[in-house]
């Protein structure tokens, strides 16, 4: 990467930031997926799975790499670094101290890449793109709260980013980040798991997305992190899903690329968590 710029800011050509799993494992428990999995991820298999994901993403997008650091095993989940919009980044403020140690590395990367960094007050958790996803036009931000990101961050985000922010309350601890259960696709379709939201939030989603644009995934696919999808154009890259859901996505014109990501599921993450969007959404 040439120093001083990613070339990704303000660019709508797909680009993502990934971090190799050199120091990845489950070393603490901060979500239900990690329970019973401490030290249970296989480093060799995690590396193979990550390489396969990296190769799949490289076929449809530019991928920049963040240098892995020892002692911060969840740093592979770059979606939690922050949220990019119009060439600026809002840096994450992690809810858990274990992940808070990643913040300086993300901040340094953004700054070295020439991306201006905004920060939130230390007492207000916000976990980046893990809990904040734009509609394809880039005008509306869907923001999750309830487990990691605090509701109070949403109004601050609206002020910093100058966009409409719609809050969605997450109620199932297995779907603790918005990107584990909600994925606005580029063509205006939505992949989501309705039971992860409270009734009011479901009503907000249904008011925005007509029924024929909503793909409500069944629980087994939701538990396979089907909603945790990376998408670039018509390509959707995700963990292994049911043939029925793959057919549904293909019928809507998507090319479905399935990459086995079981080692990362042990930490509560999959394809989308492993990629931070660097390109601009919308026009
Ligand atoms: N173990 C990580 C955590 O609990 C997983 C993060 C997954 N990232 C995401 N964007 N959903 O924070």
Walk me through the topology.
Blueprint: E1 15-18, H1 43-58, E2 62-65, E3 82-85, E4 88-91, H2 97-100, H3 103-112, E5 116-118, E6 132-134, E7 140-145, H4 152-161, E8 164-169, E9 182-184, E10 190-192, H5 199-208, E11 214-216, H6 219-223, E12 230-232, E13 235-238, H7 243-251, E14 255-258, H8 262-265, E15 276-277
Parallel strand pairs: 1-2, 4-5, 7-8, 10-11, 13-14
Antiparallel strand pairs: 1-15, 3-4, 6-7, 9-10, 12-13
Give a quick summary of the entry.
With 283 residues, the protein is of the alpha/beta class. Helices cover 24% and strands 20% of the residues.
Secondary-structure element pattern, one letter each? EHEEEHHEEEHEEEHEHEEHEHE
CATH topology grouping: L-arginine/glycine Amidinotransferase, Chain A
**Largest sheet, described in full?**
3 strands, mixed
Percent of residues in β-strands = 15-25%
Q: Residue ranges: pLDDT <50 for 5 or more in a row?
A: 1-5
Basic shape: globular
CATH class: Alpha Beta
**Total domain units:** 1
- The CATH architecture classification is 5-stranded Propeller
Bound molecules: arginine
In which range does the helix fraction lie?
Answer: 10-25%
**Spatial strand order of the main sheet:** 2-1-15
What distance lies between the first and last C-alpha atoms, to the nearest angstrom?
25 Å
The count of strands amounts to 15
